[in-house]
Amino acid sequence: MNKGDIYIGALLHDVGKFFEPSKQYDISGKYTDIKYSHPQYSAFLLDVLHKEVGFFQKYSKAIVGIVGYHHQPRNLTEKIVQLANWLASGERMTDEENKSFYLNVPLKSIFCDICLDDLSDKAPTEMDYLLAPLSFESIFPTSDAENDKTVYREMVKNFSGDLRKIKTKKALLQLLEKYLSFMQAQTTGFVADVSLYDHLKITSAIAVCLYHQVNEVELSEAEIDRIRKELKRGTVDDKNFILIHGDLSGIQNYIFNVASKGAAKSLKGRSVYLVLLMESIADYIVAELQLEQTNILYNGGGNFYILAPAVFEGKIKI
Questions:
Q1: The pLDDT value given to residue 120
Q2: 109 with 125: CB under 8 angstroms?
Q3: Whole-number Å distance between alpha carbons of 4 and 1
Q4: What is the pTM of this model?
């Protein structure tokens, strides 16, 4: 069992959901023992990347099996990714009336669910995100967002080309953020308000934690099987994770306590300094605990949150 394989497999386990709607690749007759179509596309993509791209060749062929069989795991590694996927999917809200498939449903803005009764008697307007690469223009939702095969094909074409240029894990994560931030993670039977990028990121963070729990003999395969069975029946009371919170107090006083002359430059400089400081601290903790960038759940405003395995709690000193 290899942490790198688990990380890459978990990070890309549902990437087939992005490729499938484009109907650009013919995989008929391939991967027929894989139950669902989107893992078939995920396996197809990882198979090609592992054969042709140097970055992916640093990992074992197990990454193809992880993405292909995460719904029907055959070994401990694949069970870890399946469990991580189930736990990461816990944020989804059911919508039994929604029978639509990925192609027809855009990512919904969560702000549509906010209704301030004291200020307005009107229900919030439905707003969705256009499927597009992340940019300053695409971050704003619209009331007439529609997706079709043409959009998916163009996105998939550009994404595939950029994947072949990947040389580092950080670059891969940034690429997923660029292309999948406005792609919905789930549609049929659920509210489509969680991006595929966020789902992949959280799944990989959880999978890395589970790997360390198993590697440190704090979690057995039998325990993973028990948790998987309990999750099928509902929620599970489990203590395999800890949340590390970093809080830089007094940042307002530091940022705004400047002389009036050249204040704009001083404010920008101090703000950038605090951002770099918090990023450095978070990166240091992640490196020391042998975690991944995906384990940094949030970093901003003088705060960060890192998801870590419970076995490392003794390593965190206040």
A1: 56
A2: no
A3: 9
A4: 0.87
